[in-house]
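Q&A FORM
Asked by: J.P.
Topic: structure of FAD-binding protein

PROVIDED:
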Amino acid sequence: MSTPDRRLPRWDDAAVTTSSPLPTRNWCETTTLALPERSYAAGDAGQVAGLLAAHADSRVQLLGSRFSYPTLIDGTDGIALHLRSRGPRILHLDEQTVTVTADCPLTEVWEHVRDWGLTLPVCPPVITEQTVAGALGTGTHAQGLGEGLLADAVRAVTYVGADGAEHEVTADDEGFGAFLLHLGCLGVLTRVTLAVQPNTRYRCAKYTTSGSELRDGFSAWNRRSDHVKAWWWVEEDRAHVWEVRPQTSPALASTPLASAHSSSPHTDLNPILEATQARLGDDTGDHDNDAAPQRTVGRFFDYTDTTGDLVEIFRNGIPAPQINMEVGVPLTRFDEAMAALAQVIDASRFRLHYPVILRPTGRSQAWLSSAYAREVVWFGFVVYQRPDGSVPDGSLALLRDIQQALAALGGLPHWGKYFDADLFDFTALPRFEEFRELRERLDPRGRFLGPRVADVLMRGVHQ
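REPLIED BY: S.T.
REPLY: Here is the structure written out as tokens.
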């Protein structure tokens, strides 16, 4: 395929029409993000430029799939802009790269390249319904010390800036690392080019072990396997682990349990899963094990080893209304983080609805990522919401205590999830000041700067 035409059509010659009202609430309909009468769709760079000109005095809030924690998104004080491409969202594919529109869902990207025997050079995240622009905006990642964020697969970004012009940024350009985690405050992404490589099949060995084995073996497991993900039930001090290696690699001779892997179901985790589902039902008032929150726990029942490509193995997310928090801690401080978490969680009267999730990643080029230029372990925490959007007493206090403990170890939060900004030293990011300066240069009036991002960027200056 050829690359898209770079000419910008006039706004009034190319109006976007949509068959249904534009969404103004977050993905699970618990929070209002924008006003219907101030929400607009743009089909291409020309229409984005036209909207910016037509609403020259308004702040612009970009909306994608709306999975980010709601405090990151606020379009009620200006206009909300939805990119809605009018034509194909896959623009070009060859043996090295794929170019897509910024509103293309990750699912569509992966499905298209897999049809041609290719894949992205990063593991897919759990939720692939998010857009490419949104994934770059918030720091979406998966697991594997051989990769950083999903954004580290990017080779070029095209965006419409505050000046209304279309710009392209490549890896050779100044500021490229800023666009790999852009927070929606640098401009409106319209196209993204990502690297591709031949697809590969993998073997996923699954086992359950003790918390002490997790602490002692986690680094070694990550050195011997391409992708490792773990779930740690802190109170029971048990961990469920997935080690993923190419199918052509020798199978793991043993696990920490010294047990051979086979296709037979393993039931050793089932009692903990049953207790977790019961506790979750008590807290949310819903004991239906077919409900989304319970299914996120129930999928571990009777686990078995699996084979497939990385999409088949890891794309298993079940969206459910929740408070989702994640903090990236330097891998070198993993043991300290485990000890601190055990102490904080044991001292709390609230019990988490889901095991602590451990996802290590390698060094990233994204300036604002906790993984910038260092290996990290992302510790994830989940509190499921009740139907009215509320959460159990004590849950937010525990999340704050967890953040405080991990921040003391050099941890920094995932930008698209829940976090308390006052607990973190963002100036510890080596390129933080460069990001601030670039943003001010590209958008001196702050048209793309939302209140949450503005607070964090300025908080880093005044701390």
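FOLLOW-UP: The chain is about 25% helix and 20% strand.
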